[in-house]
Amino acid sequence: MITVSHLSKTYHNPDGSSLQVLKDVNCEINQGEVISIIGPSGTGKSTFLRALNLLDPPTGGSIIIDGEDILKKGYPIHKMRQKVGMVFQSFNLFDHMTVLENVIYAPCKIKKEPVEQAREEGLALLRKIGLAEKADVYPSSLSGGQKQRVAIARCLAMKPEVILFDEPTSALDPTMVGEVLSVIRQLAKEGMTMLIVTHEMKFARDVSTRIFFMNEGIIYEDGPAQQVFENPVHSATKAFVQRIRKEVFEINGPDYDFPGMETSIRQFCIKYNIADKCETALEAYQKMLKEVMHKYLPMTLRITHSELSNVTALDFMVECLESSPLRDPDVSPAFLEELGSLCKDVIEEPTSRGFRVKLIL
Ligand code: ADP
Ligand code: MG
Fold it and tell me: Are 78 and 126 in the same domain?
């Protein structure tokens, strides 16, 4: 359906310097594929999507869509724009139009669909994404998640053959990520061809038929989702997909801002979609502090989460300590039992600088 060969893009800056963002991108995209594009920021993921629908024309290479080279001089851009829809991080709705007007604008203007027909189809699309009751309101009264669902409906209204999503959930409050991802999941089930730039690793693994790992201006690794996540060929891919999210708190004494730290732990859990582990994390840390760790200050508390393996841990680290704080004679067996039932595992281990108790949540 789409064949990209030796695609390159160089930006020339006003000061005379230049930056080659896309070096040599090659790929083949077949109908019905759901491809997630992952990779560090600044590696050209957005530039690649923008090149694909000529928002930002590439400087070299070719893009063949349905047998036609869209980079050829004279190729009608509007024809390609009807085939390739795009959904942006920042929604880009028209604020002065109602929700339904946003959805039917392009079908009426570009495809010259009769207004009545466009309205009917637009309403059906709004119903599909759960926003029919908002047809006549303005975007300013919608939440971020609702705005992004409208943006998806607006894109669908043009009946595209493929949809490009550029980090569709990155601008959203974490509580609204799910409603947008579930619309995209639904489209995947219906067989829509999609390219999705995303940082949501779990979503990418669940929904995609294929993953492109982009790095330094090329598609560094291209493979089935399971292979790229579980058995990547390149070490850079492995490091990226297996990266661990973490937040560290240096608790210097009893006057530390514990409430502030609890807020940070809550935000961490929401940000990485582990809200279900939040209460356990807070209960475990409070119990540990009250029963054991208050005697071991200063200490470092660390919360870590691996998106891929879904393992979350709380580390209590004390420098220059040779044995486990849990073996302190004042720690009761009842407490240890309680801790054991609260957590999936309790690991006590020496580190290069001291000792660590790791609670797996
Ligand atoms: P990603 O989406 O992977 O984070 P981008 O495609 O947005 O990466 O950007 C890749 C690189 O290109 C970045 O270094 C960015 O600063 C640069 N870049 C993007 N757009 C422009 C532009 N219009 N002019 C100059 N440099 C740009
Ligand atoms: Mg980007």
Answer: yes
Domain range for 211 = 2-241
Ligand with an atom nearest the CA of residue 45 = 1
**185, 258: one domain:** no
10-residue mean pLDDT profile of the chain (361 residues): values are 96 92 96 95 94 92 93 87 92 95 94 94 96 96 96 96 95 88 94 94 91 96 94 93 93 96 94 88 96 96 90 96 94 95 96 96 96
Closest by CA position to 218, among listed 41, 18, 12, 7: 7
232 and 249 fall within a common domain: no
Same domain, 196 and 284: no
Instruction: Please indicate whether residue 44, judged by its CB atom, sits closer than 6 Å to ligand 1.
Output: yes
**In angstroms, rounded to a whole number, what is the distance separating the alpha carbons of residues 95 and 65?**
32
| 11 ligand 1 Cβ < 6 A | yes
Q: Which ligand is nearest to the CA of 48?
A: 1
Both structure tokens of 8 = 């390159």
Pocket test for ligand 1, best of 7, 9, 10, 11 (most atoms within 8 A of CB): 11
Is the domain of 56 the same as that of 68? Answer: yes
Counted domains in the chain: 2
**Is the CB of residue 36 less than 8 Å from the CB of residue 196?**
yes
Residue nearest to atom 6 of ligand 1 (CA): 44
Please state the pTM of the whole predicted model.
Answer: 0.83
Let me know the angle formed at the C-alpha of 43 by 38 and 48, rounded to the nearest 5 degrees: 80
Cα(168) to centroid(ligand 2), Å: 10
